[in-house]
Amino acid sequence: xxxxxxxxxxxxxxxxxxxxxxxxxxxxxxxxxxxxxxxxxxxxxxxxxxxxxxxxxxxxxxxxxxxxxxxxxxxxxxxxxxxxxxxxxxxxxxxxxxxxxxxxxxxxxxxxxxxxxxxxxxxxxxxxxxxxxxxxxxxxxxxxxxxxxxxxxxxxxxxxxxxxxxxxxxxxxxxxxx
Length: 178
Fold this sequence. Notes:
Blueprint: H1 2-22, H2 30-45, H3 50-66, H4 79-97, H5 105-108, H6 110-122, H7 129-132, H8 142-158, H9 163-177
Helix pairs in contact: 1-2, 2-3, 8-9
């Protein structure tokens, strides 16, 4: 039993080393932490232990998204902070349709939907017409319009009836561009 516990202790130490590189407020920059993370990943990848090689594979799969924000204090620190940020709008969506899943509406209409759903946090009383007047001519941002256009195309692609028409339209647009 003692050798197995020693092995588990060593694996826990490895996990603690990895976890230390992920803490943004540890005093080192994200570039330094990423270098440490990659060094640990390489050490684990060359190990003869299958558990450590498995840890290295997981680390390799996640390294692309872990250090993306650099040291920007305005970005979420981790997935938990990002989830906390989305909690209020998702809860609102769940109350609207009564299902557990918040739906893709937050993703597709997020640039304009989230500020509207979050407005009550800074403004506890109902809005008046004069307060809403400046937003009368507001337009959707291009990224949201593109997302909605992609959604329309994908819905047609999933439909057995509309798919041939979509393919014909895409082929016509492709030939017109040549």
